Amino acid sequence: MHWTWLRFADLGVDNLYDALALRSRVFVLEQGPFLDPDGCDRASWHLLGREAGGILQAYLRVVDPGCKYVEPSIGRVVTAPEVRRRGLGRRLVAEGLARCTAAHPGRAIRISAQARLERFYGDFGFVRTGADYPEDGIAHVQMLRPA
After folding, report:
1. Could you say which DSSP state residue 138 is in?
2. Closest CA to 74 of 65, 83, 87
3. Which residue in 28, 93, 105, 115 could disulfide with 24, CB within 3.0 to 4.6 Å?
4. Euclidean distance between CA atoms 9 and 44, whole angstroms
């Protein structure tokens, strides 16, 4: 997997198109109606994982502190449906955490995780900080990874 780590302004049209297309395949088509562009993409780092042939297979963003939460936050974590169950999601989150920690040293990291993925994120040191809540028709939970 080849990882690319870019600010929004440096993505270029091809990377932006590929990222939005993958996010739409999963967050809009699979999970239901959802307005993906939420105003935080411009205030984020973007991590893109491409296979050897150049196809985007994994993506997440790290939102700057102050855009969504006081802490930096990881979100829009997505892998292509055809490569699931191969450990790529774990590799993506591990890479994202490493990049986030380098960009924001000494900071806690907050996420809004789908409640069904609480254990997955718990494996990376995230702990629940509140009750489940609905977000776009899916149960979510806020989680924090201490600094």
Report:
1. E
2. 65
3. 28
4. 10
Q: Which residue has the tokens 């000494």?
A: 106
Q: How far apart are CA 55 and CA 83, in angstroms?
A: 11
Q: Which of 101, 108, 102 is nearest to 126 (CA)?
A: 108
Model confidence, pTM: 0.91
Categorize the per-residue pLDDT at 89 as very low, low, confident or very high, splitting at 50, 70 and 90. very high
Q: Tens of pLDDT along 96-127?
A: 999 999 999 999 999 999 999 999 999 999 99
Nearest CA to 73 out of 2, 136, 17, 140 is that of 140
Domains located in the chain, CATH noted: 2-105 (3.40.630.30)
User: Is beta strand 133-135 parallel, antiparallel or unpaired with respect to 138-145?
Assistant: antiparallel
Read off the pLDDT of residues 61-70 as tens digits, 9 standing for 90 and up: 999 999 999 9
Task: Name residue 113's beta-bridge partners.
Answer: 141
